[in-house]
Amino acid sequence: MKNTILRIENVSKIYGETEVLKDISLEVKEGDNVVLIGPSGTGKSTLLRCINQLTSINSGRIWLDDEEITAPGVNHDQVRQHIGMVFQDFLLFNHLTALDNVMVGPVRVLGMDKEKAREHAMYELKRVGLEDRAGHYPGQLSGGQKQRVAIARALAMDPRIMLFDEPTSALDPELIGEVLEVMEKLAKEGMTMVVVTHEMGFAREVADKIVFMEKGLVVEEGAPKDIFYKPKFERTREFLWKITELYGDHDDDDDDEEDED
Amino acid sequence: MADFLAFFGKYLPVLLEGTLITLKLTAIGLGLGFVIGLPVAVARVYGGKWIGGFANAYISLFRGTPALVQLFVIYFGLPDIGLTLSRLTAAYLALGLNSAAYQAEYFRGAIQAIGSGQMKAARAIGMTRIQAVRYIILPQALRLVIPAWSNEPISLLKTSAIAFLISVPDLMTEAKYVASKTYNPISSYLAAAVVYLVLSFIVNGVMSWVEKTSAIPGLKLGSTRS
Fold it and tell me: pTM here?
C-alpha cells in the first residue's frame, strides 16, 4: 500500500462571481504520476496554484503527507519548499546563470552551504542533461533548455511532489520532446507528479491516473487505458477525440522512434 | 570669445571651489535619495493599501511641490519646531528627500516591468516575499532602471543650484560672487553654465558605462520574460 502524498478534499475556488473549482477531491499516492486534462479555462492550472498555495482556496482542505497545509497558521513559504512547480512560461530568473537559478533556492531558502549547493545544483542539471549549460543565462538558452533548467530548479529543493503547469505549451514543437523525456525519466525514478498537459501521448504512456476536468469539476478519473479506450462519459470521449485531432496522436510511429533513443 | 576664455581661465579656480560643493550636494542628495527612494518604491509596489498608500503620499508630496519650497520649509520652517539645521545639512536633506520621490518612481516602474512571473517563481521555491524582492526582483529592477534613472543625477545636479538661495557656497553662489566682483554677469554665469554642462557630460558617460557593464548576457532590453 503506497502512502498518500497529496490529498485534496472538496476544494472550491471562486474568482469574483465565477466558481473556478467546484468541490474538487483528489488523491495522489507516492510515486504516482497524475495527469490533469480538460479544456482551457477549466481550472486545472488554478488547482495546481491552489495546491502550492500561490492562490488561496475558498473552501475545502489540502493535505501534504499528513499535514493539512490549508489549516490556519501554516507557513505557506515552508509548504512551498516541499512542492516543486514548473510553469508554462519557464519563469527562470533572468539575471542568474542556469547554475545559479538552480542554486538560489537551496542557498537562500534552505541556507545550504554554497559549495554543497553548487554540487547539488550540478547534479540536478545533469539529471536534466544540461550540465554543459551551467554558465549560460536564460537569454542564451532555447525554450526547451529553459524549461529543463526550471525543472532542475524545482528538483533542487528535493520536493515531495512536482507540479507541472502545461510545461510544453509555450515550446516550439521540436523542443517539446526533450522536456517530456526529462519528465518521463523523473516519473520512472519514482517522483510524485501532477501534470497539466495537452500532450496525450505523454498522458497515455506515463500517467498512472488521468483526471478529466471540465468547468471546474472532475468529470472522470481513471487509468489511461480506461480513460482513452472506454471512457464512462460522452464528454470525455468528445474531448479526447478533439484534442488528438488538434495536437496529433503521439502514439504514432515517428514518436516511437524518438522514445527509443 | 577670446575675452570669455581669458575670463573663464582666470576665475575657474574660484568657480571650482563652488563646483566641489555642487558635486557634494548632488552626490549626497543622490545617495540619500537612493537609500530612501528604493524602500519607498518597494513599499509602493508591495506594501498593500496602507504602507503602499503612505509611500504614494510621500511621492506625490515631494514630486508635486517645488524643490525650492521644500528647501525653505526645511531650512526656515523647521527651526520653528526646534530643529535648526546648518545650511549644508538643510540642502542635503531637501535634495535627498526630493530626489527620493523621483527615484522611487523610476524604481517602481522598473519593478513593475519585471513582472509578476518572477515573483511567482521565487515564491514557488519557498522564498518569502522579502527574499524574493531582495534576491530576484531588485537585482533585475536595478539593472533595468539604469537608462531612466540616468536622468536623475543630471536633474539633481541642476536642481542643486537652489542651495544658492540659502547661501550655500556652491557653483551658483561663486558665480554670483564673481559676477558682482567683476561687473561681468554674462561671462560669470556663462562660465557656470559651461561647468554644469561639462559635469552633465561626465555623468552621462559614467551612466552609459554602468549600463553596459551591468547588462545581463542574452537579455534584450525591454524583454523581461524568460
Answer: 0.87
What letter represents residue A149's amino acid?
V
Residue A138 to residue B218, Cβ atoms within 8 A = yes
A47-86 pLDDT per residue, tens: 999 999 999 999 999 999 999 999 999 999 999 999 999 9
> Is A105 close to B224, i.e. CB distance below 8 A?
no
Which among A83, A90, A95 is the nearest to B140, CB-wise? A95
Q: Using CA atoms, how far apart are residues B35 and B40, in angstroms rounded to an integer?
A: 9
Alpha carbon distance A212, B189 (integer Å): 78
Q: How many CB atoms sit inside 10 A of residue A75's CB?
A: 12
b/e burial code for range A16-55 (CB count within 10 A of at least 16 → b): eeebbbbebebebbebbbbbbbbeeebbbbbbbbbbbbbb
CB B111 within 8 A of CB B136: no
Retrieve residue B142's grid coordinates. Answer: 536595478
B142 touches chain A (CB under 8 A): no
Q: Which amino acid belongs to residue B142?
A: L
In degrees and rounded to multiples of 5, residue A222 shows phi and psi of 170, 180
The nearest CA of chain A is from the CA of B137 a distance in Å of 9
